[in-house]
Amino acid sequence: MHAMNLNHPNFVALVESITNGFSEFVTSGALSPGYLLTPNNRGQQGLVTILNMFSVFERPIGEIFALMEDDLAGMFSRSAIESKNKPPANLMYPEQPYIQDGKFHFRDQVFDKIALIPLVMDFSRDQGEWGKSYYTCEQQEKVLSYVKDTLDGIDWYRKIRPKGLLEFFPFLGINPEAHSLDFIQEILSIYVRTDRSTAWNPRIAKPLQRFRGIKLYPPLGTDPWPSEPEKLEKITSIYRFCELHKLPIITHCDDQGFRGVNSKLAQQYTSPASWIPVFENFPELKVDFAHYGKQYNIVLKPSLKALLENSFTSDPWFSELMELMRRFKHVYADFSFSGTDPRFYEQLHHFMDTCEDPALVETIATHSLFGSDFSVNLAKVESYSNYYRIFETSPFSSSQIQRFASENPIRFLGLDT
């Protein structure tokens, strides 16, 4: 999930990436049906959706954590006055709150804790790209303030809710394109926890070394395997660090989101196939492809088979991701944001049910992770509880859900050792 407020994104970078190629922005899919501009989110309902999302973005990070827990505990309710327009898409809620009597209840299972992975994104920019407007500074390491706000938010939550259900396993965002090798090595040593001896006790840690993995975001300018030696050395230093200390990586993998480069480069860097040389050189590296490689705007003309199936499992990036799962043993994928649409779960379940490769089906079952992308997912759902309910009503069995939401994430985070 993304615990962020309006101080953290780099809107200058987003505007620059658009103005440098406006036609590419239009054709990139950011305005395509199915991503943000769904039929239910147009007109007045779209304004309500935006206001709802920004009412979360304007809060401090600690308050966002508390809000999430309060929502699952049933402390928010829908307005009795319905809009005259269409209601939000996929609007559904459980009969009883998910948190009752100090426990989290989901289907027929009861959990003691809810693990959150706040993803700190690195919105820093390369110094050479600044200076295009009056007030932009020459250099700005936005990741440092975001890190501080995240750790402060975790501390604030724990102070006001010592018996709260939330446990935190934050990931540190790094954009190697924006930093020197020395800076990358320094923030890894300062903020990332490498001590595995107390793996299942996140409250015992050095004051700053609380990050459990790395977050990469290719559309902001991160090439997973650049051809330039200097750039390759910077990102492979991250891979070596993670492989040595058995730390996981989460990489953005749908064709939308924030961008710091033009859409063509963003697509090239984000494609699952771009990670093949990474795994060939770092076979023990553990990487989760967020959003399951969902594509909202496929540049290449889809095949007749894909058109007939009308399923994301026919998209090129899904096929690339399946090939990675076949070839490399530490490739994961998560449901974040894609799970705002019930059809995502239905299509993935159908693929698993009809796939003629039993080894691949088992890999999907053991390497898929539940995630929400809160609060960005409020662009497509009304609330955190709404998102959970969509997952709860999916065609997956309770044992499969136990894998997706508990067993697999524990293994991915290295908490099973």
Please characterize this protein's 3D structure.
This protein is an alpha/beta fold and 417 residues long. It has a single domain, classed as TIM Barrel. It is built from 15 helices and eleven strands. It has helices spanning 11-19, 22-27, 44-57, 61-72, 142-160, 181-191, 229-245, 263-270, 276-281, 304-309, 316-327, 342-354, 358-367, 384-392, 398-412; strands at 99-100, 103-106, 109-111, 114-116, 166-168, 171-173, 213-216, 249-252, 287-290, 331-334, 368-369. It has a six-stranded parallel β-sheet with strand order 6-7-8-9-10-11. The two termini are 24 Å apart.
Outline the fold blueprint.
Blueprint: H1 11-19, H2 22-27, H3 44-57, H4 61-72, E1 99-100, E2 103-106, E3 109-111, E4 114-116, H5 142-160, E5 166-168, E6 171-173, H6 181-191, E7 213-216, H7 229-245, E8 249-252, H8 263-270, H9 276-281, E9 287-290, H10 304-309, H11 316-327, E10 331-334, H12 342-354, H13 358-367, E11 368-369, H14 384-392, H15 398-412
Parallel strand pairs: 4-5, 6-7, 7-8, 8-9, 9-10, 10-11
Antiparallel strand pairs: 1-2, 2-3
Helix pairs in contact: 4-5, 6-7
